[in-house]
């Protein structure tokens, strides 16, 4: 059975690295835990590492977090759907918002639950996912400010989430200026300016975060140690927090070129034939994972050298092991590091066992 491991030592190292980085810069940060997909064992461990707020985009996961640690401050990091309003108030101390009608619903539900709900107003900075347009911010804030049981905890933005628009010092200065405009016009202090996600970490390391931007939500860099500008591991961070392990269930020398009448495979792909490969063979290993678990083989990186992906079906992954030094056998385990989307997909698979290791 395929399984994924979370290395406690590596995760704690990355957590402490980021905590030290943000503390030195007098900034706050909140771990984004959606990659854990509500796994109680993993959540219980990371919740023990510090007192920071935690973020998730799934209310079911926030509910689990509140059960594990009722005092932990939680942030729901996407605009709520109408039918989730009651649970947002129950399980999220703060939520991201961009629509007045949604905040009005939150206000009404907060009154029913006899509580005050805090919101972060998300502002569009060019990536064109969630966020109100900057020219609408003043009127938007004025209307929100009048709602009972709602407190504006801050403003925020997202970049590099949909169209790949990268953050810059200029864009963050723009976000900081919106904070100053609100404070000048309404005489209300905006406590938090949430600058973005893991993509902001390299800018912070280079001293390019402007004064006023004081809060960040970090997931990918926490779990994978990734520098999203250079697409490589940040020096002194660990990239082995998550590892996927899968067993060889068949290993056989087979022709390189398939034979028979050919059509598209179940993924809609048509195999291209290279006539020069007729008559050649390769040693093929089949693993007990497939597209149902990993979505794309591109999300995986084997820890062994000279392993090559041949393809995958819904439940099996095929590798060319002809060039490897190791003499692989049935029952051997192949291990992979994963990209962010790969780890997210694997963690979300109920068919993959999850283990906590040191």
UniProtKB/TrEMBL annotation:
Alphabetical list of Pfam families matching this protein: Ala_racemase_N
Keywords noted in UniProt: Isomerase, Pyridoxal phosphate
CC cofactor: pyridoxal 5'-phosphate
Top-level lineage group: Bacteria
Protein name in UniProt: Amino acid racemase
CDD domains linked to this entry: PLPDE_III_AR_like_1
Segments forming domain Alanine racemase N-terminal: 7-224
UniProt KW Isomerase keyword: yes
Lineage: Bacteria, Pseudomonadati, Bacteroidota, Flavobacteriia, Flavobacteriales
């Amino acid at each position: 059975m395929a399984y994924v491991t979370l290395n406690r030592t590596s995760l704690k190292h990355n957590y402490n690295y980021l905590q030290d980085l943000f503390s030195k810069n007098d900034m706050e940060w909140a771990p984004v835990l959606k990659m854990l997909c509500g796994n109680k064992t993993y959540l219980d461990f990371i919740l023990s590492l510090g007192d920071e707020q935690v973020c998730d985009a799934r209310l079911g996961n926030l509910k689990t977090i509140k059960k594990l640690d009722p005092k932990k401050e939680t942030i729901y990091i996407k605009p709520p759907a109408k039918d989730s309003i009651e649970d947002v108030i129950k399980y999220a101390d703060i939520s991201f918002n961009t629509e007045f009608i949604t905040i009005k619903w939150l206000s009404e539900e907060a009154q029913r639950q006899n509580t005050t709900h805090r919101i972060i107003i998300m502002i569009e900075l060019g990536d064109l996912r969630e966020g109100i347009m900057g020219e609408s911010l003043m009127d938007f804030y004025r209307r929100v400010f009048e709602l009972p049981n709602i407190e504006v905890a801050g403003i925020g933005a997202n970049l590099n989430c949909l169209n790949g628009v990268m953050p810059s010092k200029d864009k963050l200065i723009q976000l900081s200026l919106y904070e100053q405009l609100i404070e000048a016009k309404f005489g209300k202090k905006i406590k938090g300016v949430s600058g973005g996600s893991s993509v902001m970490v390299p800018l912070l390391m280079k001293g390019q975060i402007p004064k006023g931007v004081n809060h960040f939500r970090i997931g990918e860099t926490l779990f994978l140690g990734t520098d999203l500008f250079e697409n490589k591991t940040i020096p002194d961070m660990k990239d082995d927090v998550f590892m996927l392990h899968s067993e060889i269930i068949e290993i056989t020398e087979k022709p390189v070129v398939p034979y028979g009448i050919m059509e598209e495979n179940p993924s809609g792909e048509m195999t291209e034939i290279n006539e020069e490969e007729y008559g050649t063979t390769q040693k093929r290993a089949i693993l007990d994972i497939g597209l149902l678990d990993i979505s794309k083989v591109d999300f995986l990186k084997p820890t062994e050298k000279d392993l090559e992906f041949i393809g995958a079906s819904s439940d099996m992954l095929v590798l060319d092991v002809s060039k490897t030094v190791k003499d692989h056998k049935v029952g051997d385990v192949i291990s992979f590091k994963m990209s962010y989307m790969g780890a997210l997909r694997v963690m979300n698979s109920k068919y993959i066992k999850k283990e906590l290791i040191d």
